[in-house]
Design goal:
The chain is mainly alpha-helical. It contains two helices and two strands, in the order H-H-E-E. The radius of gyration is 30 Å and the shape is rod-shaped.
Length: 123
């Protein structure tokens, strides 16, 4: 009788420990997944905020250069934008007359919809 009670106690203990371990692993995986998702969302938001701020600063600098409509001054401003923003590979300014000034490596395209563009500076 004592042997059956000990065996049953060991079996119940084993089952309980297995359930606790399973719950522990499930909870740990849920925490990792939630933390990873939250981290990626925060990193994405941080990147977008930083990029947005950098582009606004660049647009402000370009606004001063475009006031005179001097091509050399605008080219100098575009080069300065590239130097100050290492993440950019190229910038393009399209004047209200349709004239395009490019600095850096900017893709050749036939339509503006081929790249992401936004009117940062409006004249």
């Amino acid at each position: 009788m004592l042997l059956i009670a000990v065996t049953l106690g060991v079996a119940v203990t084993g089952v309980m420990l297995s359930v606790f371990y399973g719950q522990y692993r499930w909870l740990a995986n849920q925490l990792v997944d939630a933390s990873s998702t939250e981290y990626h969302l925060l990193a994405e938001e941080n990147f977008e905020q930083k990029a947005h701020a950098e582009l606004h600063n660049a647009a402000d600098g370009l606004l001063v250069a475009t006031a005179s409509n001097d091509v050399t001054e605008i080219s100098r401003a575009l080069n300065t934008i590239l130097i100050e923003n290492g993440d950019l590979t190229g910038v393009q300014y399209i004047a209200s007359t349709g004239e395009s000034i490019v600095s850096g490596s900017y893709p050749t395209m036939t339509t503006l919809s081929a790249t992401t563009t936004k009117n940062w500076v409006k004249k």
